[in-house]
Amino acid sequence: MKVAIIGAGAAGCFCAIELKRRLPDAVVEIFEARKRPLAKVAVTGGGRCNLTNSFENINDLREAYPRGDKLMRRVFTSFDNKDTWEWFENEGVKLVLQEDNCVFPASQDAMEIVNLLKTRMRQLGVNVLVNSKVTSVKALLDQYDAVVVTTGGYHKPVASSSTGDLFEGLDLEIVPPVPSLFTFNLPSSPVRDLMGTVVENAEVSLAGTRFKASGPLLITHWGMSGPSVLKLSSYAARYLAESRYDATLLVNWLEGMNPDQARQDIGKTAVKNPLKQITNSRPDSLPSRLWTYLVAKSKIRQDARWAEIGQKGLNRLVETLTNDSYHIKGQSRFKEEFVTCGGVSLKEIDYKTMEAKKYPGLYFAGEVLDIDAITGGFNLQAAWSTGYLAAVSISEK
Ligand SMILES: Cc1cc2nc3c(=O)[nH]c(=O)nc-3n(C[C@H](O)[C@H](O)[C@H](O)COP(=O)(O)OP(=O)(O)OC[C@H]3O[C@@H](n4cnc5c(N)ncnc54)[C@H](O)[C@@H]3O)c2cc1C
Fold first, then answer.
1. Which residue, judged by its Cα, is nearest atom 38 of ligand 1?
2. Both 153 and 232 in a single domain?
3. Do 143 and 219 lie in a common domain?
4. Is 270 in the pocket of ligand 1 (CB under 6 A)?
5. Ligand 1 atom with least separation from CA of 11
6. Which of 31, 36, 40 to mutate to test the pocket of ligand 1 (most atoms within 8 A of CB)?
7. What are 324-381's pLDDT values in tens digits?
8. Both 274 and 350 in a single domain?
9. The domain containing residue 295 runs over which residues?
10. Count of domains in the chain?
């Protein structure tokens, strides 16, 4: 049997290893456009490689995979995060689970993962052909018994459907790729003067939509970032692309509190401390510079005391605290980490095998598919799981 894998990234290399273990006599060749395999894995997680997640905080897979949750549910019945943990530990990589549920190699070095996968491929006799960009999947399908496409996401944010000529001659639906996992530019907002400020529990949403996310929020010199913003960018990736990254961001600085609860809470503070200066009695969760900024934004004098602000002032403060509005105009990269929303439509794929429904012998795995996740190790998990399932399916065919 001859199998071609296009792309020596996380999904392609993982698939090749599993395939060779199951079919030692098969010829497995990986075509890699770049001069080195696994270049992206080497830089994942800031060079530490967040290779999976415990999924403990995930109640519904849709929270982790805004695109592809149903496919991932099926794929996890073959290979899930626990299997990933076991797989790497069996290969001699000690893993650590962080408090935030992210899993890293104990060495905190992505190169340990890269070197392990490269070594196993060499030992098993996988033929890695570097500097070998494939330009036509169809041409390879004629030469191999099976072809696995694992070409990953798209390097540049693109607004329309564009996958080069790779799929020419094949009738495959491509969901137009757009970037996911980015931060928001707020070019005209004075909040940027508070750069470096972190709020541990904020809720962010987009006005007029159902998109919302919560978690830590970081104010930067260009706008807003942090886990809550990255999550929101993922959930709303396509909406924001279609809106040309021009939208209204709403921030609830008191996550978990609605305006009525906030009014009661702040009302109590006001009644208890009528003579205290407002800027000197902030909620525990808000840094003092941010509190001062929010008080000023509510058109309350910096030296005002609680007894002076009246019902109207209280209402304005509550509105700013729970429904603070910012104009997003543009997006920025987060530490060069981004993934692609879009790719080969999941309608084309048999979820049980990762095989293309219309083309027997053609398989897909990893980010080339219309699957992507929030940060936290979920994207690599998708690459391992789908690569694994493609290998199992080919070997059982
Ligand atoms: C900076 C950064 C940090 C990240 N950190 C994390 C993290 O810590 N945890 C996490 O879960 N996710 C992380 N991600 C996302 C994660 O790296 C990807 O989702 C994952 O690598 C996708 O795996 P893949 O095998 O599908 O694609 P890739 O790993 O991108 O591999 C695709 C390969 O195919 C090759 N290729 C493309 N086209 C062709 C062609 N025509 N012919 C031959 N070869 C081709 C490419 O050169 C590449 O080597 C990060 C992403 C970035 C950019």
1. 151
2. no
3. no
4. no
5. 25
6. 40
7. 999 999 999 876 778 999 999 999 999 999 999 999 999 999 999 999 999 999 999 9
8. no
9. 183-336
10. 2
